[in-house]
Input
Amino acid sequence: MDDMSKPKFDKSFTNQEPIPEEGIQRAVGILKSGKLHRYNLDEKEIGDVSHLESEFSRWQGVDFCLACTSGGYALQLALRAIGVKQGDQILANAYTLAPVAGAIHNVGALPILVEIDQNYHIDLEDLYSKAVSSRSKFLLLSHMRGHIVDMNKLLKICVELDICLIEDCAHTMGAKWDGKRSGNFGKVSVFSTQTYKHINSGEGGFLTTNDEEIAAIAVILSGSYMLYERHGAIPSKESFDKVRLSSPNYSGRMDQLRASILRVQLPRLEENIVRWNRLYQKLFKNLSKVEGITIPDRVDKEFYVGSSIQFRVNIPSPEEIERFLNSCARRGVQLKWFGDTQPKGYTSRYDSWKFFNDIPHLSQTLEILRNTIDMRIPLTFNEQDCILICNIIEEELESSEKTNQVVYY
Ligand SMILES: *Cc1c(COP(=O)(O)O)cnc(C)c1O
Output
C-alpha cells in the first residue's frame, strides 16, 4: 500500500474542548464590567478568584489554596515558602518537564536528579542513596505524566530522612493513591491549569497546603499587597501578622477572567476523568497487544487520570525511531519522543538543561526514555479515534521493522 491509500487520522492532538457556555457567559460579564483584577471588588464582594480558591480547596480536601499565574510560578513560590535558600540541594526525579528545572533554578537551588524506573516512577533506591549522600532536605516530586509511585514507600523515606516533600501535580489533578488525592501527601503541592492539563484557563496554577505559615507566606509572595484578607482559603490573621512584612511581593496573581472559566470546569472534572480513562483504556488495550510495544502496568492502588499515554517501542536505533515517528505523523498521528537528544516542542530531556552545572549521567533513565513514546489524549477524541490511532501505530511499527530488516540483511 502506498501512503495515499492508507487511512489517515485527521483530528488535532492539541485541540481541547471548548470552555462550557456557562463559563463563556461569566467571562463576558467580567469583560463588560472591566473588573478583571482579583482585588478590584466592592466592599464585601467576593471575587471569582477567591471563590475558585475555596472551591478548589474543598474539592481537593485541603485547608489552604492560592491561585496564581501558572503552575511553574506556583512551584517557585512553593520552594520559597518552605524556605529553600540559594545553594540548597533539591532532590527531583529526572523525568519531568522543563518548568520544574526552571523553578529550581529560579530560587538559586541545585537539583539532585534521581533515576526513574521501568514504570516511569522515581527510583526509590536511587532516591534513598542520593538523599543520604547529599543530605538534601527537599524532594520535588513530579507525578510525571500521571504515573504515581508507591506513596507509602516514598513517605517512609521522607520521614526517615526528614525530607520535606513538594508534589508537582500538573498531571495528577483528580488522581489518587490508595484513595487519597494526589497532592495531599506533601507539605505543599502545586497544580497547573494550563491548556493541556486537566482544567484549562490558558495559563494558571494552584498552590495547596495545610500548613498555616507556608500558606500565609505564599499568599504574600504572590503579590497580595495587604489585601490578603479577601482570599478564599487562607489561614488566620495571626499567621499573616508574622510574615507580612518579611515576605516580598513577587507579583503573580490570577485574574478574575481565568478564575471564572475555571470555576465552571471544576464541577465537571470527575466526569471528564471518567471520559479520559475510557479513552486511555481503549488505547492501552489495543497498544498492549501490538508486538514490539510495552506499556507499564498500573497497580490497583493507583487511580490515574489518563490524559496521556506512554509506551516503549522495540526499535533499536534513534534514526529508526525518528523514521517511525515521521511516518505516523504523515498519517496524522502526532507522537512525542522523550528519548530525543534534541529538545523539541514541549519535550526536553534532563540532559539538555545546560543552565545547571554537573548534569549527571543517569544511565537507567536514559535507557528507559530512549524508546519512550508519549501521546496526548484530548477529550475531543472518541473511542473510534483511539482504534484508528492504534491501527496506524501498529502498521507503521510493522513496516518500520520490515524496512529495518532490509537495512540489516
Ligand atoms: C505543565 C507542567 C508544569 C508547569 O505548569 P505551567 O502552568 O505550564 O507553568 C510543571 N510540571 C509539570 C510536570 C508540567 O507538566
User: Anything to note?
Assistant: The longest helix spans residues 383-408. The two ends are 23 Å apart (CA to CA). The chain has a mean pLDDT of 95.
